[in-house]
């Protein structure tokens, strides 16, 4: 009996640049606020829900389809982080619970830092740009957690500046990858 063998080939695009764009843009905007350039408003919350949250969760699901466990965990988790952060801000304003204390926010940001440290360890088998990016995310969560625990405006401002660098790093990787795939060669370095 003759058997037909079908081999399915994944021809879908690389979703990572979109997820990195969502992470990068949202991280930069929130940290421009953290650096003291403007207040926390609906612009940041809208970006947090859509680009930081929804887009990254969609990308995480796309990474699952591509059998990329790291991409799935990172994008889906950070997408959920952004949505949960917006809920932390808006639920108390809607009368649906108390606003978290500074100590509670310190722990919230701290556990995300621990999770990110685990992801950073995984990046040690990846490119230098990914090691750099996730290293800056670890430092960002550590600074934001410390600022929450201590109430230090200075540490919060430093975290904001570091967060802009972190977000810009993600956006750089996204654009460099987009250009690599569009032009078929490295246009921007990706060490």
Automatic annotation (TrEMBL):
<dbReference type="InterPro" id="IPR000791">
    <property type="entry name" value="Gpr1/Fun34/SatP-like"/>
</dbReference>
<feature type="transmembrane region" description="Helical">
    <location>
        <begin position="104"/>
        <end position="124"/>
    </location>
</feature>
<feature type="transmembrane region" description="Helical">
    <location>
        <begin position="131"/>
        <end position="149"/>
    </location>
</feature>
<feature type="transmembrane region" description="Helical">
    <location>
        <begin position="155"/>
        <end position="180"/>
    </location>
</feature>
<feature type="transmembrane region" description="Helical">
    <location>
        <begin position="73"/>
        <end position="92"/>
    </location>
</feature>
<dbReference type="InterPro" id="IPR047623">
    <property type="entry name" value="SatP"/>
</dbReference>
<comment type="similarity">
    <text>Belongs to the acetate uptake transporter (AceTr) (TC 2.A.96) family.</text>
</comment>
<keyword id="KW-1133">Transmembrane helix</keyword>
<feature type="transmembrane region" description="Helical">
    <location>
        <begin position="37"/>
        <end position="61"/>
    </location>
</feature>
<keyword id="KW-0812">Transmembrane</keyword>
<dbReference type="InterPro" id="IPR047622">
    <property type="entry name" value="GPR1_FUN34_YAAH"/>
</dbReference>
<keyword id="KW-0472">Membrane</keyword>
<protein>
    <submittedName>
        <fullName>Acetate uptake transporter</fullName>
    </submittedName>
</protein>
<dbReference type="Pfam" id="PF01184">
    <property type="entry name" value="Gpr1_Fun34_YaaH"/>
</dbReference>
